[in-house]
Amino acid sequence: MKVPSYILISLFSLVILVAIISISSFPEKYFNLDTIGSTSKKIQAMSKRGENKKTIKIFIDAGHNSRTTGGFGPIGAEHTLNYEVALHLAQRLAKDKRFEYEISRDVSNYSTNILAFGISNKQILNSIITTKVAGEKRSNPLSSKQYLDMYSMRHYAIDNNFDFFISIHFDTVDKKYYKKVQGFQVIVSPYNRKFDESFEMAETISKRFTEFYPVSRGTRHDKKLPESIWKKYDKNTLHLKGISLRSLIVIGDVFEYTYFNDRYSSNKGFIETIEDIPSVLLETGYLHESKFTNEATLKDVANRLYLSMCDVLL
Ligand SMILES: [Zn+2]
Predict the structure, then answer these.
(1) Distance CA 279, CA 154 (A)
(2) Concatenated DSSP letters for 273-313?
(3) How far apart are CA 63 and CA 164, in angstroms?
(4) Cβ count within 10 A of residue 140
């Protein structure tokens, strides 16, 4: 059968047309794919290096202030040493762009941010302060202003999405124990709603510190803690690591925990979503340990805290 020439011409034209369309559209398509591909590869590479991660926000509490003072010992006042370590830590963090930080106070008083937060949230903070818990007593009665400042600091850090809260302290002991007692301890609270993260940080700090500092024999836990804690943790192991479990205002206490539980108990499930911040309180050493009069030692303490944060948070 002879195919009419007009059909052959039409078919030939169609093949040419398809070829032209393919050739002209192919390069464009190709470049688009290439661009998309290379961008996603770039994002992957960046996230591996951590370049597109958000900065880690550290809240540094230089324990006490010149009015509340904290302890005193042969090497000086606690609030002064706490502040010196806090400044060294701030200086270390400032050199690393992956971190941001804020310090609770200057030499003498809490920062204006914290004081302003306390004023604008006075009602809720006072409700926490006045919360009663059966069988629990506030161990160290403070003035209502001191309570307000301490809860303000903790909730300021929570509300402003800080990633980690470190409270720096030094310990004291009766003179007759000076020769026997020295070393650090790390305190975490089972009433902190980010207890697991807090505990991981406490273990890391303990590991970094035991390379150079003795573990304090003064670790002790609150007598009344949730029973579930002792199913998970062994007292002897905690003692060897220098970790104490305690209810304390700045890292989360039983009064605040109860306040939020009561407030939201009518709305089951919501309690899990109450915000919190992984928090650790460090008792760096004792105020009779002369090594802490040395600037280099305080710098080393700060550096070990910085390294612990790198270990856990980056
Ligand atoms: Zn203290």
Answers:
(1) 9
(2) G-----EEEEEEEETT-GGGGSHHHHHHHHHHHHHHHHHHH
(3) 15
(4) 7
Output the six-digit token pair for 82: 């706490």
pLDDT at 34 over 50: no
Percentage of residues of the chain with pLDDT beyond 70: 81
Centre of ligand 1 from the C-alpha of residue 6, in Å: 99
pLDDT at 12: 56
CA–centroid distance, residue 99 to ligand 1 (Å): 25
Give me ligand 1 centre to Cα 284, in Å: 10
- Look up the pTM and report it: 0.81
With the C-alpha atoms ordered 265, 274, 200, 82, is the resulting torsion angle positive or negative? Answer: negative
Q: Judge whether 214 and 178 are in contact, CB under 8 Å.
A: no
Predicted confidence (pLDDT) at residue 79 exceeds the cutoff of 80: yes
Alpha-carbon gap, residue 211 to 192, rounded angstroms: 28
Distance (Å, whole) CA 119 – CA 105: 16
Q: Give the three-class secondary structure for 247.
A: coil
Ligand 1 mean position, distance from CA 96 (Å): 28
Ligand 1 center from residue 124 Cα (angstroms)? 25
**End-to-end Cα spacing for the chain:** 78
Work out the number of other CB atoms within 10 angstroms of the CB of residue 46: 12
103: phi then psi, degrees, rounded to nearest 5: -105, 145
- Tell me the residue type at 140: N
- For 12, 14, 291, the CA distances from 17, given in Å and listed in that order, are 9, 5, 87
3-state secondary structure string across 154-208: HHHHHHCCCCEEEEEEEECCCHHHCCCCCCEEEEECCCCCCHHHHHHHHHHHHHH
User: What is the C-alpha to C-alpha distance for residues 288 and 180, in angstroms, rounded to an integer?
Assistant: 11
**Token pair for residue 292?**
């802490």
What does the angle CA 261 – CA 245 – CA 139 come to, to the nearest 5 degrees?
75
